[in-house]
Amino acid sequence: MRIGNLAGQLTLFTATAPVRAVDVEKASAGRFGSDPQAVFAVWEEFLGWTRAADLTIRTRSTCSSRTGSPTDCSPRRPVFRHLDR
After folding, report:
1. How far apart are CA 79 and CA 18, in angstroms?
2. Residue among 58, 48, 63, 45 nearest 12 (CA)
3. Cis ω before 70 (30° cut-off from 0)
């Protein structure tokens, strides 16, 4: 699983095919917001949530030109951070 920025929103990308883009704010019922950088302040809590979350229910369309790292709000750089789940 990877964490990333899709169109300015915190997104998880599943590791298995088909790759799914999961809107974290929606999948967590608002527990974690859409700001890609804010999650680092609650990182351990976030990791705990990712281990138990059903990531098959909330998906988003993926578009490589709109993806980026969670610390880069520029959508031009498709860089991701890997999560151990």
Report:
1. 19
2. 58
3. no
Query: pTM for the whole thing?
Result: 0.68
* DSSP annotation of 76: T
Residue 81 corresponds to which amino acid? Answer: R
Write the burial class of residue 11 (CB in 10 Å: 0-12 exposed, 13-18 middle, 19+ buried): buried
Residue indicated by tokens 């999961």: 22
- Interatomic CA distance for residues 72 and 78, integer angstroms: 10
Mind listing the pLDDT tens digit for each residue in 64-77? Answer: 545 555 554 444 44
Six-digit token pair at 50?
A: 């990712």
